[in-house]
Amino acid sequence: MPNPAGIVIDQAFDQLIRKRFFKGVRFDEPSGDPGWFGPHSPVWYVHEHTPAMILGLGAAAVIETLHPDFAWMGYDHSRAVERVAGRPTGGVDPEGLLVRGGHSFSFFMAVGHGPTPAADRVTRAVRGMHNKVRGVRPDGRAYDADDPETLRWAYATVVWGIATAHERYHPRPLTGADLDEYYRQFVKVGEALGGVDLPDTKVAVAEYLLDSVPLMGVTMPTVDLLTSLNSRSTPLPVRAVTGLAEWALLDLQPGWAKKLLRVPHYSPPTVIARRAAVWSGLNAARYGAGPLREVRQSRQRVNRKRAETTALHVA
User: Fold this and answer.
1) Of 24-33, 93-102, 104-113, 173-182, where does mean pLDDT reach its minimum?
2) Which of 21, 102, 108, 138 is deepest in the core (most CB within 10 A)?
3) pLDDT tens, 72-110?
4) Higher pLDDT pick, 140 / 226
5) Peptide bond into 30 cis (omega under 30)
6) Rounded distance, CA 219 to CA 235, Å?
7) 3 state DSSP class of 168
8) Does the structure show a pLDDT above 60 at 310?
């Protein structure tokens, strides 16, 4: 019997994301193709908890804006930034934000669970988009999305964000060597996008981010992002949920980032209570609705070849 919650979420996902951003990406074929990582990999395990992965990508988007090159790159080129007559207003374009988030999510689903041809294709597409993202900051410094240090920063923030959200909110998170294996596997994604000399363990990524602090700063794009996250600007009926989501994104940040972002300090009981509320919400969404259709199709794709082989041997 179909799960009612799963049906509702799948239908909403179908309208908002699947029909718009998964065009041409098949997760159910070719038979037996494990993709880049395979069903027993840490990448599959981590990414199958879709709500936690989305929260991690959001946390990565927050910390990314503390790098001035990255901040102005997004301000000048991101669809999420509201523009009038081609000029940024400092606001957020809701439709553009959905497009930006949809493309990011579909990319990580394709490279994580998709078959090899799909992972290869979406990676080429993203590299093609990066080739066009270059410009000059207001202070005259040039930026380039294909710059090795920019690619390293982008890789490190994303793997940090997803892994940190996983550690905090997955009911059975990977730890120790298993978690480091996730970091090592994720290097494949960073390298496919052009990254080199990428940190490949939890400690190495944390040290890289910490070593980057002298380069960090709060610029106008950072302020605009924080303003857009302010839950007080959302409708009253959903303000409690958006406020908790805003808090969770900032709570995931490392200590040095919280200082730059001027995140308020909360008492330990408050932090524990809020993390418990986020944990409950994310896991209710994940396990109440079940895995996404694409996740189910990916497992069926891999298992189909095994079933065919078994049937052939029996025959």
Assistant:
1) 93-102
2) 108
3) 988 888 877 777 777 777 677 777 777 777 888 889 999
4) 140
5) yes
6) 28
7) helix
8) no
In one-letter notation, the amino acid at residue 14 is D
pLDDT of 170 above 90: yes
Q: What's the token pair of residue 21?
A: 């951003």
